[in-house]
Write a structure and sequence with these properties.
Blueprint lengths: L15 H14 L24 H13 L1 E6 L5 H8 L5 E9 L9 E8 L2 H9 L16 E3 L30 H9 L4 H12 L3 H18 L7 E5 L13 E6 L25 H19 L3 E7 L6 E6 L4 E7 L3 H15 L3 H14 L13 H14 L8 H10 L18 H10 L16 H13 L6 E4 L4 E4 L24 H20 L2 H7 L8 H5 L1 H4 L17 H4 L18 H27 L6 E3 L6 E3 L7
Parallel strand pairs: 1-4, 6-9
Antiparallel strand pairs: 1-3, 2-3, 5-6, 7-8, 8-9, 10-11, 12-13
Helix pairs in contact: 2-7, 5-6, 6-10, 9-13, 10-11, 14-15
Length: 648
Amino acid sequence: MLHIYRTTLRTHRRTLGEQLGRVLQPAVTGMMPLSTLQSPWPIRHCSANNVRTFDTMLKARRAEARRSVLVQVSSERSYNELYRYCSQFGEITSAHHYRVDGDSSSDGDCHYILLEYKNREEADAAMQSGVFSTERPGVRARSIFMWFRTGPKPRLVAPTNDTVRQLALVDGSRPIDEQELNALLASAETIDDQVTVLHRVTKLNDLGKRLRFLAVRQLESSLQGMFPQAVAHPFGSSVNGYGRMGCDLDVILDLDCRSGEPPDRNARLVYHTKATNPNERTQVQRQLESIGDVLQLFLPGVNSVRRILKARVPIVKYHHEHLDLEIDLTMNNKAGVYMSELLYLFGELDHRVRPLTFAIRRWAQAVGLTNQAPGYWITNFSLTMLVMYFLQQLPAPILPSINKLIQLSAATKESNGVVPPLARLGGDGEDAEWVCSFLKNPSIYECFRSTNQSTLEELLHQFFTFYAQFDFNQRAISLNIAGTILKPDHCPMYIVNPLETVLNVSKNVNLEETELFRIQVRNALWLLETHGKEAVVQAGSEPSEWGLVSLFGPRKQLERITPQMFFTKRMLNVKDIFDEVPADDATGRHPASYRNPAVKNQIASIHRSTKAAIGKLQGGSAGGANGGRSTVVEGTNVKLKGGNTKRR
């Protein structure tokens, strides 16, 4: 039986100076790849460094998942034995270890090792060699998720290499601790270095991306028996380059990825199909409900399936216990994929885009502007749109407008003179043609280069200055034209959806949160100006609280500004105007005091006129009484008739 127990990570700790130097070294020297560095935190890098376009990145990640299997082990010390056993099925090219924290009801933490083979056939051979446990009965579904049990060692085939390939990562899914992050940021030399370090140690690492594409593969393989053309499209922060460690996985399921292709007119055999509901929304809801049942009943590792079918976009949420991952599944709404590709393109156009976005989003989370739960606050997506628009507005723009990208794409062609096809995910009307007309062109990644030489520190200051002066009351933001337009409606914050320009991506943000954003950007600007490294040392303050640490350090978590701080308590209870109860009654209320005599006179005038009106109502009701029942309102002498009489 597999025995799970808690282990302690035995990683050699270095001084903060050594750690900071090794994190910044690739950016400074450009000689040593990130994969060769050793750090107490998982190295954040992509194994396919030559991947540029969004489509080629997705293709490479899918191929990695197709060559991989996931095995649960007792601890990372089981790796050598696991490696020798699994090498009989083929050559293992990489291995990654991570740990999932256990709860109080389990024996301890769960350890997993992700093995990647040289080709998919070897991975299939390893998966097909698995057996079902007779001691732990369950649904007999074969999958890439297995566990390594103890017992008599089978006769092994000698591996091609006598040496065991080292683990690429140990405890690779562990995010950096807040205290460690703040200490690392405080030891940096400049704010520019702080932003770079923040991005490199908090972004989604290679293992995190591999695990997310394993979830995509499991979802596809579970449905491709009935729907051979089913494709699960990951989108959002997991693939657009702005994801952080622990982010959720968003997936769009397309049951027939070839539905937009024109049929062969020469074919004479036509499939029989099941009739669908004429209401597309109802049909999607029913399909998601059935898929949720399949996930919950048959797929190993899937639990806590929640069906949110009445939402504007119906989704199924579930947790994968082996991957320690929250997954949101939806259907037939491919706008998220297009938007992910657009943000990926923006991140590839300039190396400063993603680090700046990470710093802004981290600051917004620390001061309470964003929240993981849905609500009336600014979302990470809206905040990312604000960053992209700011980079378009600089005197020397770092990012071009979307209309400019379309023009550049139309002016360029492939080296062979053929424009890439426009259809990719099926027919979505004008949106699909508009998006693919420039995003599908690989040359678009090289057609724009900014002349702006600003550092990340300067861009951070300029971002806060820009939105501290922005007119959210009258203007709406449009990334399509890299400018502002008059607001079409009265939403406090209006950001035009780049794909569907009639929609507002920040429609959920209310007036209080918009005002809070203005206050926080001004406060952040003041903190950066007064908490520079030299200013902090001269003032004799803590040298650890400067730069980014002053924006979202531990003290900042306790000093959050809330909208309630800007609304004073009611100066006067309205009931006190009409109530004749003495001031020293049992309720303990004291007579109202007025600082302004004019206000006191106005209240007295209102009191007299109201009493007169009440007297008239009382007299009218007495004269017009028809024998009905009446009730007396407490605190007044007004009698209201009972029965069906309406209160005016």
